[in-house]
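Progress against Task 2.4 (sequence-to-structure conversion) is shown through the following example record, which the project officer requested during the mid-term review.
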Amino acid sequence: MTKPNATLIGVFVLGAIALIVAGVLFFGSGTFLQKRIPFVSFFPGSVAGLQVGAAVTLRGVRVGQVKSIGIRVNPETHSFLNQVNMELMPETVTIYGVQPPYEENVVPMLVQRGLTARLIMQSFVTKQVNVDLDFRRGAEVSRLGLSTAVPEVPTVPSDLEAITKKLEELDIAKALEAFEHTLASVNEILESPELKQTIRELPGVMSTLRHTLNTVDREVAALSGTGREAIAGSAASLQKTLASVQTLAANLDREAASTLGAARGTFKRADTALDRANVLLDPHGRTAIQVQRALDDLAAAAARLRNLAERVDRDPSILVRGR
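Structure tokens generated for the chain above:
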């Protein structure tokens, strides 16, 4: 019996190991030796369609994958919580201001800036679900803060969950009752005799309305022609009136000019007369002194005549004898 060659066996073993390593490096595109940053998210809703190995995307770019999926049960509240453990591939994300290689604290830093996780459907045919990361500031997030060895990324409800929540909040029974009441009211209106009578009379009403509209069109056309003629006549009359007003204004301007000239002459003569009157009426003026002297002379003459009259009255012979 031939003894096995140990050297040959060792060569086969080393070749097999080399082939395995080469296959891993080839089919994994070199990802086997790359560093991963683990993180976790807790989804309160269903994660149906999410599988291990599903893509973790950021704005449509694959940046990681799902490593494991589990359920946390709270025995006190009998509530269930889906725990999704994921890994981030740092080589697919470039963070300005932070130099690679990234440490585990990069995930909390991104969470502080609004990073959240949401389930999105990859295909409506296969019902497969991926985890989508994005910065959603102001969104209603769910962050449990449970004790974990890796950082937690808050979650937001998916579009389907948001619609389901709205439907759960909607009172279907009350809405159906209101809809049935509305249908009953509409049916009552449609079955009313007044509506049926109105429908029967509707053709006659439409014919009368059409005739009325035609009459109104004719009257409006005639009124429009009459109105245009009246407007044209009024415009001509208005032009004549404006011309008369302009002529009257010109005449008034001329009359006013002549009247103002005459008034100025009258005022000038009045000023002269007033000046002369002031000269005559001045008690210290020459005329007033002369008038005063004349009056004094007249008074003296009157006194002499009165004296002569008294003497003649006592002795008429004085007229013959003289003094």
